[in-house]
Amino acid sequence: MPARRALAYGLLGLPLAFAALPVYVHVPRLYAETAGLPLALLGAILLGARLLDAGIDPWLGWLADRLPRRGMLAVALLPFAAGFAALVNPPASHAAAWLLGALALTYLGFSAATVAYQAWGADIAPDSAERTRFTAAREGFGLAGVVLAAALPGLLAADHNTGLGRLGWVLPPLLLVTAVTTLVGVGPAAGRVAALAEPVGASLRGALGDAAFRRLLAVFVANGLAAALPATLFPFFVADVLEADAAGGPLLVAYFLAGAASLPLWVRLAARHGRVTAWLGAMGLAMLAFGWAARLGAGDVAGFALVCVASGLALGADLALPAAIAADLGERQGRAGACFGVWNLAAKLNLALAAGLALPLLAWLGYQPGSGTGLPALSFTYALLPLAFKAVAAALLWRWRHLLEITS
Q1: Which of 87, 169, 256, 336 is the most exposed place for a label (fewest CB within 10 A)?
Q2: pTM confidence score
Q3: pLDDT tens across 273-302, in order?
Q4: Residues 254, 308 contacting (CB under 8 angstroms)
Q5: Are residue 235 and residue 293 in the same domain, yes or no?
């Protein structure tokens, strides 16, 4: 029964992640090609919407501590589904206003649903071990959603943009089925909501006032930068260093499948040796993979496939273990919503910071996409710089291991 309940809870992670990949990866190209939006205007709209999206997460977390989390989750799915369907089906005219409105609706629904979903998971799991299982189930289904979203547009239509538009009509029924299964299969949970009367500022100060949570955030940010840098630079590395642009899709699939397959292993290792020790082991594996990637060159597709598998295995720990520790800390405070609001803000800022750091650095070091110049700089920024951030994260985690190894 506990395993069935964890699977029922995790199922909703599939459609949430299913929509995230097209929103972040495919929408810019879609609006540039089909709607003809100028790149400068497109970039300004995307940047503004993403900053707004990141900024509202702490307030959504505060709201999740004041409202029934199942109810907030169910309501948030409505604007999420409507916004996504509109987003991937742009009109022939007024595309800029349509993009801004659809992004706002999608981001609001997605962020509210995600924060409520994560906080609800902290409520319904009775102890630390179960929170790790629930988190792993959520992230495992999320990885399945990413792979599904990557494959479906090509299956739905010969033209990628047409397939993407049809993907918008796949999400609402998928979301309905999975949401009903999750809400009914898990059932209600009373949860602890100790922060009902707090204003938003006090709620955020309370969440950040926990020394263990602040230290976990520091590890999470350093580790997140180590993951976000290669994610940002992956297409450039495959195209210019490996000279194997066509292999990018299969390599990404191998990465995500390895991450999904590794989740049960990390749950077992965490139960046996502790979550901090298991997470440190995953960081070591990722550092070995990054170090090997720095040695690769043109045609080394097989070697890079091993890098993708090894780093994908480490990804499973990154997805399951720190979020489970955060759930414990949030539940201990009675502010799981506020903690996950701050947590998601940090995750989104990591992605923005990675792009803001990596791309100007590459330009300064002389790399020019597609020109064959500056390839050592690309290898350094793709592999060795993340290795350094990962080493910082591992050192901090080791230093604070006794504070962060929580059992309840």
Answers
A1: 169
A2: 0.80
A3: 999 999 999 999 999 999 999 999 999 999
A4: yes
A5: yes
